[in-house]
Amino acid sequence: MEHTQIGIDKIRFGGFCIESWDITYLENLSRHNSSIKIASTSIEGEWRIEIADNYLFSDLIMGCRRHGCQMVEYAYLTMSPTNVCGHNQDNLLWSEYDACLGTVLEYILHQYHICFGTKNLKVKMMEINCNIPLDGAYVDYDRVIRLLMSFLPKHLRNSQPYASRRVTENSSPSYLHSNNSMSVKIYNKTAQMRAKFPDLPELGEDREIMRIEISLDSPEKIASSLGSNLWSELSDTAIADYYHRYIIDTMQRKYQQWHQKRQCELVRLLRKNRREHPKDWHHLTMQHIRNQSELAGVPYILDIEQVAEAYKQLPDKHRNRSRAIRSLLEIPIEDDLYKHQDREKVREIFTHLLSSDQSSM
């Protein structure tokens, strides 16, 4: 399977019709199996069964609850690629999940004596992602990731400072923006897999994997994003199109707008500093860039070449542009922060995401 395939990771199904189930069999099974829990409530007619299978499916929750004057049955089935492949290094296509769903339902019937109808099968939650094999170490992409995440819509930031949305997984920085109905996350998939499956042969590869993941966490969000939350009305193409539209178009367009705006700002800054401080303009410019980065919590520029490109747009009356740019590029910068070709890393990420869209459709 290609690392750059756009597909589904964890998924939760609903809309099942509980056609038959054997409570006596399940009660007997639960006495010897702690992964099966049967509960009733003080409300007459309400009941709930939880099964943590972790073999062909992750968990199954079914029951009956009061809704107004009626008693309504429900059933939710959660699956992930781990249930199909033994691990979740890669995702699964909609068509691959669809092909194995019948086997899972037959297994539930045989193993737990529960029979489901799937005529109105719906999706309650879905994680859509794409793996990106990196040319360098994941930690070297930290500034790029922080910038890209800053382009996401404000409604995903929960009105919290950006720094508070950073979490650490397996010693690698991960970034999460979320609200009640969806989330977007970028993290080191290789580090996660090494922690969970240290003996997996695929992890012997040299290139680390960055995963960019969207989680649609409600039926309403799935329906508005994909056009429907009915399983039969979804497809590989619909899911790849949505991912492409949201991640590629949103981040890519915002990045292009950011880059254009930043170049204009740099031209104005350089013109002002060169006019007011002809001897120290380059040091004052870099100090302003550092201050702005610290204030915003995201990079103000990615590469020093952005400043050089902006300088080339200024008048060169004394024909000393080359010498001025050379002195700019030679300014000592802590950790050579702006000399790691981070703009090329952005292009690398978008190239993989664009190719993943083409390969999935």
Topology at a glance:
Blueprint: E1 7-14, E2 17-21, H1 23-32, E3 36-40, E4 47-51, E5 59-67, E6 70-79, H2 81-85, H3 94-112, E7 114-117, E8 122-133, H4 142-150, E9 166-169, E10 172-178, E11 182-188, H5 189-196, E12 209-216, H6 219-226, H7 236-276, H8 281-296, H9 305-311, H10 321-329, H11 342-360
Structural write-up:
- The chain has a 10-stranded antiparallel β-sheet. Strands 2-7 form a two-stranded antiparallel ribbon.
- The two termini are 14 Å apart.
- It has 361 residues and is of the alpha+beta class.
- The protein is elongated and about 90 Å long.
- β4 and β5 (59-67) form a beta hairpin.
- α7 (236-276) runs antiparallel to α8 (281-296) and α7 (236-276) packs across α9 (305-311).
- Residues 159-164 have low confidence and may be disordered.
- The chain contains 11 helices and 12 strands.
Give a quick set of tags describing it:
single chain; 361 residues; alpha+beta; two-stranded antiparallel sheet; 11 helices; 42% helix
Summarize the structure.
The protein has 361 residues and is an alpha+beta fold. The protein has helices spanning 23-32, 81-85, 94-112, 142-150, 189-196, 219-226, 236-276, 281-296, 305-311, 321-329, 342-360; strands at 7-14, 17-21, 36-40, 47-51, 59-67, 70-79, 114-117, 122-133, 166-169, 172-178, 182-188, 209-216.
